[in-house]
Write a structure and sequence with these properties.
about 325 residues; alpha/beta; eight-stranded parallel beta barrel; two-stranded antiparallel ribbon; 12 helices; 13 strands; about 35% helix; globular; binds iron/sulfur cluster
Length: about 325
Amino acid sequence: MKDIFDECRFRDLTLKSRIVRTGLWESQKEMGNLSPEIFLRYERLAKNHVGLIVTELISLYAHDRFSDYSHSINNPKFIKEFKYLAEITHENDVPIFAQLGFVNCNVNGKQNVDVNDLTLEDIRQIQSDYIVAAKKISFAGFDGIQIAMGNNYYFSKLIDLKENRRHDDYGGNTFKRLKMILEIIKVIKDTTDLHINCRVNASDDVLEIAKLLEKYGADSLQITKPSSPQYFRKDSKDKNILFEITDEIAGSVNIPVILGGGLSDINSINDLINSTAIEFVSMQRPFVFNPTFLSEWKNGSEVESLCRTCNNCYWKKTSTCHIIAEEE
Ligand code: SF4
């Protein structure tokens, strides 16, 4: 019988629980630097039974649409500050991954380049920028990197059949649409010890994408909501289709697969991990509402997270709960 709080292997890492805290936005910075509030937040997460922490988004490019709400890999204090962040989680035996991605592609003096307009020079520049960023993350002592290729991030467009209409080596079949990312993974694997997690959308061809990512070096996957709501229709058994897709992938690859959200009570999660091939579940908003709720579960509480999923923290792009703030 599996349990949320099993100590378990996650490829090369040992986790204290099956819960992954996934990050989204973080705007509580001071002049672009991590504030004491952020360090405290990570300390509280790490001390309260989370298995793995994935940071909020670290933006690859300046002037990205969301750069005000994300960390920047190009901040001069990046290594110093993120090294301290990694030390905080490691002191509590919790591994930490850096979520790295971008929305707007600003390369070679150009702004907001569409995936179909990328030149070979642009592709090499993106790959080089990504690999340099991964080396910084490795130097800061992180255990892994999460390649943001789901949701609406740029890489999700690159691999999407409808968005990518290229006719060269980086467009066409699924392998070619993934090729830029597979080449990045190879170099990161060859030059760092980072665990590579890929966060991908539950799209029509996600099973093929998952198998290719595994074959070319990804160490784990996180399956997340695609931008189109069509994948969230309910089936006849009234189960969320994301669970089914993630279950199918987890049963088809030999690397850990994380369910990207959708559950916030202990009994449902324990039921899921005992009735499907899914062994890891990520959460974001419940941790925003209360970073210590896992300790309550560990101590026997079965109370569902009190987060109202109002999404204010998402729309306002902070890691703080606006409901709690209004009530105080
Ligand atoms: S702002 Fe809303 S969604 Fe975010 S943590 Fe608070 S209750 Fe949950």
